Each structure stands twice: as C-alpha cells, then as structure tokens.
Amino acid sequence: MVQFSGVLGVTMVALGMVLTPGPNMIYLASRSITQGRRAGVISLGGVVLGFVVYLVATNVGLSVVFITVPELYLAVKLAGAAYLAHLAWSALKPGGVSVFDPKEVPHDSPRRLFTMGLMTNLLNPKIAIMYLSLIPQFIDLGSGHVLLQGLTLGSVQILVSIAVNLTIVLAAGTIAGFLSRRPSWLKVQRYLMGTALGALAVSLAIDTSTPAGPS
Q1: What does each C-alpha distance from 121 to 51, 83, 116 come to in angstroms?
Q2: Separation of alpha carbons 16 and 158, rounded Å
Q3: Cα angle vertex 208, ends 206, 213, to 5°?
Q4: How many other C-beta atoms are found inside a 10 Å radius of the C-beta of residue 126?
Q5: How many CB atoms lie within 10 A of CB 167?
Q6: Are 81 and 205 a contacting pair, CB within 8 Å?
Q7: I need a surface site. Which of 81, 126, 156, 213 has the fewest CB within 10 A?
Q8: What is the pLDDT of residue 95?
Q9: Higher local confidence (pLDDT), 109 or 91
C-alpha cells in the first residue's frame, strides 16, 4: 500500500521538475504554437508514452543497465545532445524560422508529431535515472509490493507532468496571434530559443555525471 506521504513527496518533486524548462516543455510549447493545440496534445501523447516506457523499464531493471554499462548511458546522452544541437541550429541559422511563427513552419502528420514527442522524451536518459533515484526514496518497504509501489508512485509523477504540460499546450496556442503582429519579437524569440537549446545541448554533452543508484 502506497503511503500518502510518498504520494505527496513525489508530487512536490515532480512539480519542481516539470516547471523547470527542458526539452519536453520547449518542444510542446513550440509545436502547440506552430501547429495548434491539437498538435500539441498529440505531441504530449508521445511524451507521456516516453515516461511510461522509462517507468516500466526502470522498474524492471533498465536503470541497472545504465549503471553497469555507463557507455550506454553516455551514448544515449550524446544522442540527446546532438538532437538539441540540431534544433538550436535550425533556429539560429540564416533564414531560420521561429518556433512561434505558425505561418512558416511546415505541419507534421499526427504520427510524426507523436513520434517526435516520444523521441524527445526517450533521448533524455536522465528520466530513467530520475525514476531510479527518486521513486525508491518514497517506497515503504514494510508495506510490501515494492514493484507495485514503484509503478504507482511513477504514475503520480506522470499525472503531474500531464497536468502541467497540458496547461502549457493549451495556453501556448494563444501566443501565436500575439507574436504574429510583432515580427521583431519573433526574431528575438528565435535567437533566444536557439541560444537556450544550444546551451542545453552543451550542458548535456559536457555533463560528466554518471548514473548512481538510490541512496
């Protein structure tokens, strides 16, 4: 039986994590504004599936693989950094398009939107490590059913992420009209977003931390 204190603890930590700008938030906000709320919701579905994949995998041992085979962790981390660098270059290159300009960004199919949302999440190996280091701290060993507790607490984190990101998706769509009437703001946003994505890519690439088990 999951303790209420565990649910509350996971909820607070999950809120802190999801409110910190990262690849998922950037992708969902930009996609919602460039292609509309429906596209944002479909993309969010892919992100959520990524959470589910990592949740199940970490609870059955994938995180142990990352710990015992750090080269695999490094490979996935570098793949994520390369993906972010690609997004940054797309925004900063001459003639690049702002993610907040719905007129110039090509619309993707629902399948591609879902897949891109999924890959954005899966290319962040820290999600697996988050489940490994966070969830065990709120599991009550005396209550038994450790696997069930882990899945339940992980589901709480996913629900918090859905609630916050869905709010972002629905609100982001209204920004398109506002910025479309202010072309200079679009240019400033494009450079700011590209710089932020580039900084995220560099930060991920030079991060020398290694996976660690729960304390």
Answers
A1: 7, 11, 9
A2: 13
A3: 140
A4: 19
A5: 10
A6: yes
A7: 213
A8: 67
A9: 109
